[in-house]
Structure formats: C-alpha cells, structure tokens
Amino acid sequence: MGLYSEELIREVQNRADIVEIVSDYVSLKRSGENYVGLCPFHSEKTPSFTINPKKQLFYCFGCGAGGNIFSFLMKKENWTFPEALRWLAERVGVRLPEEGTWGKVSEAFKLKREILEINKLAAEFFHHNLINTAEGKRAREYLANRGIISETVEKFFLGYALPCWDGLIRFMRSKGVGDDALLKAGLIIPRRDGKGYYDRFRDRVIFPIKDITGGTVGFGGRILDKGEPKYLNSPETAVFTKREQLYGLPVVIKKGGASIILVEGYMDCISLHQNGFTQTVASLGTSLTEQQAKILKRYSEEVIIAYDADTAGQSATLRGIEILVKEGLKVRVLSLPEGKDPDEFIRTRGKDAFAEQLSSALDFVDYKLDLAGRGLDLRTRDGKIKFIKKAVSVIAGIESRVERELYVQKLSEELSIPRQALHEEINKTINKTTLPNIGLKYKNSQLRDNNKELTRLKALSGFHKAERDILRMMIEDDSARDKIMKNLTAHNFVNAKRRKIAEMIFEMVKRNEAVTPRGISLKLKDDQAAAAELANILMEPGNIDNGMVDALINRVKENYLKFAIKKIRNEIHQAEKIGEVKKAFSLLSTYHRLKLEIEQLKRDSSRKGGTR
Ligand SMILES: [Zn+2]
C-alpha cells in the first residue's frame, strides 16, 4: 500500500465534495440527480461532462475521462496521487503526517508549494507596507485619488513595494527565506556585477495575482509616478504562466453564468469590481491568448470586451474577437468615448452610465462594421465603395448563413444597394478564402464525433454490456451481488479494466467492507483507466432489471469461455508448430473441458429461457 493509511485517505475523500471542487474549474448546472458542464479535458460545445454527487464520481461521455475527485485533480493538474491527496487534505482541513512521508511527491510539486508559500508571505509584506508604513502613504494617496476604497484594497489584497533595493530581501531573510528561493519565485533579480540580488518590485502598487484555487501565483506592479514600464509582472515561474492567468477570475467563478467583462488593466478590473461589476477579469496587460479564451469559455457563454478606446485598444479588441469567436464564445464590444478606459469612464460618469454602455454593447460583427465605416463619408460614391469592400469581408467571415443574410438585408437597406449585388461580392470572398478551411475543420470534427459515437455504441453492445451491467448490480444491489459472487469470479471478466473492478469488489466483500462507489473508486487510485470505466458504468442512466441477473451471469461466463477457448486454440497451434507434442496434448484436454462447459452453459440458458 501507499504512504498513508486507508482511513486517512477515506477521511479526506469523505470531507471533500466533488461538485464543490470541480466548480473551481467547470461551470456546472444541475440536471436531474447529476451536474453537467463543458468538459475541461476536451473541447466541446454541448456539455457531456457529468458529475454524480451521490456517488462522488465524474464521467465525460464525450472523451471518456472519469473517476473520483482524486482522478479529477490528477488529470487536471497533472499530479500524482500523493500530490492530489496532499492538496485536497489541506483544502478540507485534514492533517497529514508531515516530513518523511512525502515519499513519491515530485520535486516539481515541492517547488510549486514552496513558491506559493513565499508568494503568500510576500503578499502579506506588500500589504502591510501599503496599510501601515510611512513610505506607503504615497501609494495610499494614489489609490485614494483613483477612488479605490479600503474594502477593495482588502478584497484584492493590494500592496506596496518599498522604494528601496532590498526591502523584500531583508524581510524574507528575517523569515528564514533565502535568495535562491526568492529567485525561483521571480521576486528578485541578480545584480549585474554578480554580487547578490535586488528586489524586482520597487516603489510600485502591488496587485497579487491569484489562481482559481486561491494561491498567489504572481504579482503585477504599477508605477506611482511617470516612468517605465508602467506595469511590471512577475516573470514566468513554476506556478506562474502569464498566458494562462486572468486577473480577477477567482471572484468571477463564484458568480457563474453571467457574461464576463474583459478589460486590459488591473485598475480597470478592481474599479469595475468596486462598482458592482464583479464579473470582470483582466488579461494581464498582454493581448488575449488562446489559453485564456479557453478558460473563459468554461465559465461563461459570452464575453464583453471593454478595452481602452485608443488605437492600441482597438487592435487588441479585434485580435481578442478573433480568438474568442474561434473558441465558440459570443462576443460583444463595449464602445467607450475616444481616449477613455473603463476605469476613467466609471469614475467620471458613474456606474449607471457604465451599465447602460454594457447593455448597449455591440455584437462583434456590428462593431467591426461600425469600425469599417469610421472616417468614411457614406454619402459619397467613393466612401460607399470603400465601406462595402470592408463590410463584405466582415460579413463573409460569419459562419451562419442566416446571420449573414440578416446583415445583408440591413446593409442593403442602409446603403440602398440591391441584396443580390452584395451576395455576389460576399460569395466571391467566401469562395476565395474562408470556405475550404471552415469546411474542412467542420468535416474533421464531425467525423471525430461520429467515430466516438460509434465506439461508444460498440462498447455497449453484447458482452461488454453484460459485464458492465453485472458490475453495476454488484455495487448497487446487495442480493444480486451474493448470487453473482456464487456464480462468477473476477477471472471471468474478459475486459482488463472491469476485471480489476471486480477484483476490488471481491476483495472488499471478503474483508467485510461496505461496497460503495466511493470505496471502490479509492481502491482504483493506481489504475485510472479502471477508475474511468467505473464512473462510466455507474453513470449510465436507468436501472437494471434485477430479474436479468441469471441471464447476465450466463452471458459473462459464456463470453469468458469463448475467449479462453480461442486463446487455448492458439496455444495448441503454437505448441504443434514447434513440435511440443506433449504440451499440445495436455492443452487439448483443457480445450475439451472448456468446450463441454460452454455447451452445458448454452443448454442451461436455453432451458431457462424457455421456462421464463
Ligand atoms: Zn471530455
């Protein structure tokens, strides 16, 4: 067995709620006795990721991922079992024995924990500087001038980096944290002369960046006065990957479902939160990445882009639209008056005005059309032609034919141009560029889905179904279990994953343990394929008719015999080939015995079938 007692592991599992933990990663909706959401392990548009809270198992009917809470964390975070256990134990407040018991926990995991620990200390130090020190006065004034109230300072745990070269270094030394560790956390920089280090963040307002599990993964720092760079982020570390982080996300997740407002900067983000727009995230100053879009997709159907209204903001918006639309998100764009960012807007015009802007945010196509018309005089022939050229390429990019038609109608009325003419232009563009690509992509994913469905159906047919149903009965129906165990052994399951599950059940019964989904799933912690199979079996909808138990037992047995006969026939063949006559003969007698057995079985089941 592993490093921890079974009782301890069970205690952690019992205290953790799979729905609550997974909610950090996936936006879940109740559906009957289950919860469903978009699978975090494969890309999909309709939810096939399912959690059963009663059984504490998850299963994705799209990609076949499944298991218990440990399986989920191991797969999602790429952790080993001890790593997932340790993390979960901390989360639910179970104390695991320290030191020496780390055993198989990897170096990488230890490093991550160490950095998170240091970051937490650093965040506290920065926060203390802001609130309690004389040096922090300038930063306090800066925030006050920007209308940030103390409640927001606390909520985002804002801080201040002292205006000196070694403020953090000295503080950390007093806590016993050395330079090596600080370097790994990205908080200090080696001096050019090679002698020692200096603080990365100096004289800046500090925004701690948290990941969805609440750990401080990095920092952003904003300069107080003029100077470059205006914003400074932590470098990439073992816990911080900039392209995968979104500032403000941990707060947003708890809201669930609402449209997400995407802004550029930390100040925009906290200012919007302060004014009640708590579904706001910031893309950490960099332009939006594919990974960030994928994360957003997990929490909402729609994103409203609210970048600055300057030229840089516009091109960032256009890039953002492309990335978000590609991930299948609905996208709208907030148009602020020239030169304003959301923070400024809300400070000067108030939150009601901002709410109004939000509700009238343009669909991204309208936004692009609006942009295409800027600076053109549509009353002139020249202006019209230029505009149509741009508009056509925008409309050609819309995938839905119906939607395209709506825009053609609108445009044709506004510009008094026949629809037919617009259609011709649009079709030309489509044929030239978009169609072959989109067509191919669609076909491939369609094909993949069909294949998946086919494998699924195949898996459910015949003996597969019999083995699955028998296992489910063994878990859910005590009286059926007794009968099954009298007639079958774990050996009789041909499929290796199901054989493993059966072995565990037999073992549990022998040891007088209660046979529960949770219990079995724990025993399968070293065989994640079997754990997924278990989740799949138990999450199949509907009940199995108890009266089927005899027929199912025979079916499983018959299949086992068929399989064994086939195997032994091959062995006989091999033995004859290399001239081992003696061995061939002894195999032959086994072969005959199995043959007799299967014939007997067939006679039995047809007799039983006749009387029923
Ligand atoms: Zn999946």
UniProtKB/TrEMBL annotation:
Its cofactor is Zn(2+). A zinc finger (CHC2-type) spans 39-63. Residues 258-339 form the Toprim domain. GO terms for cellular component: cytoplasm; DNA-directed RNA polymerase complex; primosome complex. The keyword Transmembrane does not apply. Binds 1 zinc ion per monomer. GO terms for molecular function: ATP binding; DNA binding; DNA helicase activity; DNA-directed RNA polymerase activity; zinc ion binding. CDD domains: TOPRIM_DnaG_primases. Its EC number is 2.7.7.101. The keyword Magnesium applies. One of its GO terms (biological process) is DNA replication, synthesis of primer. It holds the Pfam family Toprim_2. RNA polymerase that catalyzes the synthesis of short RNA molecules used as primers for DNA polymerase during DNA replication. Belongs to the DnaG primase family. Contains an N-terminal zinc-binding domain, a central core domain that contains the primase activity, and a C-terminal DnaB-binding domain. Monomer. Interacts with DnaB. This is DNA primase. The gene is dnaG.
